[in-house]
Specification:
By secondary structure, the protein is an alpha+beta fold. It is built from eight helices and seven strands, in the order αααβαββαββαααββ.
Length: 266
């Protein structure tokens, strides 16, 4: 215990006993591993956050200084470029604030009966023009049975927005497909929503990390497009607040697939 209190989380007990002391040693080792993992997550979070904040600030200051020294002309185009970096920084701070609110329970949800068919119709109407401008075909599998869940409509629209805009900006796809299936069990009925694209996809080693804070598959491309690396983390918070599950996988279409599982109303 003294080793743990000093921050030495690598220390392990090796007691081959089958009594209460043996069980205590196993619990100690589990605690040490958990503390070591949490410490690594904390350090990575601090490093990633400082890196993400430092990059747009450095670019913004560099552009302003260049204009101040006369290296770059004080033109509308150069001011627009600096303004874009300021907006990028603003979006990043807002996303960080939203994630922090979610962690502290400050992300509010208003649960009401919501029709999946109506939700997807709204999604299609909202993003049709964006998909058309980016030459992306959106297909939603028709389903005749009425499926109702208890959900916050605004948060689910945010959920779909983050996933679909990720596909627009990063997937390099020409086709998006949304399929809905109903899963019944003795204790609970679920609706499973699969969102797939035929884009470049994500390598298997990245799939398990896509919902981590500030995780980027392609750091340079994502930053150039203005992404904060927080969108899918927010998606995970939204789904978990609805007592659901979310996972990433290889899609049968060839690109990335996102599976969302939400409990249904009885």
């Amino acid at each position: 215990m003294h080793q743990l209190s000093q921050g030495n989380f690598e220390h392990q007990l090796k007691l081959k006993r089958h009594d209460e002391i043996g069980q205590l040693s196993e619990d100690y080792n589990t605690l040490a591993l958990t503390l070591a993992h949490n410490e690594q997550v904390r350090k990575r979070w601090l490093a990633n956050t400082s890196h993400e904040l430092r990059t747009p600030i450095a670019i913004l200051m560099g552009e302003l200084e260049a204009m101040q020294l006369g290296v770059r002309p004080l033109s509308v185009e150069n001011i627009r470029s600096a303004n874009d970096e300021a907006h990028h920084l603003k979006r990043l701070i807002e996303d960080l604030h939203m994630l922090n609110s979610a962690e502290l329970g400050g992300m509010h949800f208003t649960m009401q009966p919501l029709s999946i068919a109506e939700l997807l119709l709204t999604v299609k109407q909202k993003y049709t023009t964006i998909f058309k401008n980016n030459a992306i075909e959106l297909n939603i599998t028709e389903f005749s049975e009425e499926i109702t869940i208890s959900a916050d409509n605004t948060r689910l629209m945010q959920l779909f927005g983050n996933i679909l805009m990720n596909a627009v900006h990063y997937a390099q796809c020409s086709k998006l497909q949304i399929a809905v299936t109903k899963v019944t069990s003795i204790s609970q009925n679920y609706v499973v929503i699969n969102i797939e694209d035929n884009g470049i996809g994500v390598e298997d080693e990245h799939l398990a990390h896509l919902f981590e804070y500030l995780y980027r598959v392609d750091d340079a491309r994502n930053r150039q497009q203005g992404g904060s690396g927080l969108g899918l983390s927010l998606c995970q918070h939204i789904v978990h607040a609805h007592q659901g599950e979310i996972a990433a996988m290889r899609a049968p279409l060839g690109g990335l697939g996102i599976m969302i599982k939400l409990p249904m109303e009885y």
